[in-house]
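**Reference record**
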Amino acid sequence: MDLIIFQKNEITEYHIYKSLAGFEKVKKNKQVLMKLANDEKGHYYFWQKITKKKTLPNWIKVLLYILIARVLGLTFGIKLMEKGEEKAQVKYKSILKKIPNARKILHDEDVHEQKLIGLIEEERLNYVGSIVLGLNDALVELTGALAGLSFGFQNTRIIAFAGLITGVAAGFSMAAAEYLSQSHEHAEFPIKSAFYTGIAYFITVGILILPYLIFSNYILCLLLTLLLAILIILFFNYYVSVAKDLPFKKRFLEMAVISIGVSAVTFGISIFVKKIFGIEM
C-alpha cells in the first residue's frame, strides 16, 4: 500500500514542478524546476515497475501548491511541499531492506533535491532583511502608538487618523533610513532595499489600523489590533522559517513579546500622562 502512495506522490510532484516551470520566466529557475520534475517522473516509473500499476496525480494537491507558489513565492511553495514529504522519507528508510534500490530515491529526496532547490533565485528572499526591518518596526512602533492613542483619545476615528499619519511618516522615514544604510554599505540595489522596507511598513500599518476604521469601541479595536499583530508575526515568521530554513519558535516569541511589551508600556504611560496633566477627551 505504501508503494502506491509513494508512486502517487512522485507523479503529483512531477506535475507540480512541471507546471511551475511553465510559469517561470527566469531561465535558471525553469531549468532547475524541469530537472526536479524529471527526477520525480523517474521515481514514479521506478515504483511503477514494482507495483505494476498506474496511478493518477492528486490534482487538488497540484493546484494547491501551484497557487501557494504563485501567491507566496516559488521557494516557499516548494519547501512547504518538501516539508510535507518528510514522513514519506521516514517510510522510505523503513523499506530499504526490502527494496535496496530505493536508496537512490531517498538520496534524491534528501540531498539532491535540496541542492537543486537551493539554486532557485527569488528576488523577494534576497531582501528578507529589509522586509523584516519594515515589518518589525511597524509592529513595534504602531502597536505602541495605537495603544497610547487609544487611551488618550478614546475615539476610533481620531485614533485611526492619528495612527495613519504616524504610520505613513514613519514608513517613509524607515525607507529613507534603509536606503542611506544600504548606500553607505555599498549594497548593489539600495533603492530596492528601501522599497521592500517601505512596502512592508505600509502594509503592516494598514492592517493594524483596520479595526479602528470598522468598530467604534476603542478597547475592542486595540485588542483586535494586538491580535492582528500576533497573526502577522506568526505568518511572517513561519514564511521565513520555511523559505530560509530558519528556526520558527524563537523568532516568533521574540517579535511577539517585544510588540506586546511595547504596547503595554505605552498604554501605561498614556494613562500616567493623562492623570498627571488632567487631560480629558
